[in-house]
Write a sequence for this structure.
């Protein structure tokens, strides 16, 4: 699906429609990110219009993941978390949420596009660089940070030995 998209930001809403969904954007309770409901003749992808644009884009991408990967169930997504330490969720649910998040990260921040913008490493402590990159991809800095870490292109300033030495030498 991402084959024809060459430049960020990836047009997730268009891709959702191409995947067969009808997008319904509207105000939902704040703890609700979105949902995917399959009807006989249509697939409704709901997204909370009260959330930030970046968050809505991630929600749409996450629901496309459910649409393509998990054909059997409808999905109601409360605050989509990157970590999933929710004891209420069954193992199968947790697995599906992780898969949908992974799909969303791949869709919004394809490795090839990240590679085109990131020469070697991104310094996670450099707020300006992170903000610029997040704005290019129209994702939250949180989602971007998580993605860069997973791709192994993130570098935490505190872990850089030369700087640690420098800091130690400051009286
Ligand atoms: Zn989900």
């Amino acid at each position: 699906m991402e084959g024809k998209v060459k430049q960020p930001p990836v047009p997730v809403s268009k891709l959702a429609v191409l995947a067969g969904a009808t997008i319904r954007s509207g105000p939902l309770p704040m703890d609700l990110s979105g949902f995917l409901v399959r009807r006989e003749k249509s697939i409704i992808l709901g997204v909370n219009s009260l959330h930030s644009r970046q968050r809505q884009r991630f929600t749409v991408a996450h629901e496309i993941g459910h649409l393509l990967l998990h054909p059997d169930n409808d999905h109601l997504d409360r605050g989509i978390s990157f970590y999933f330490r929710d004891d209420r969720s069954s193992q199968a649910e947790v697995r599906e949420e992780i898969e949908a998040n992974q799909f969303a990260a791949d869709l919004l921040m394809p490795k090839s596009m990240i590679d085109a913008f990131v020469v070697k490493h991104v310094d996670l402590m450099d707020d300006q660089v992170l903000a610029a990159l997040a704005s290019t991809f129209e994702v939250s800095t949180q989602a971007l940070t998580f993605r860069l870490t997973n791709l192994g292109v993130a570098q935490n300033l505190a872990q850089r030995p030369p700087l640690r030495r420098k800091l130690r030498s400051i009286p």
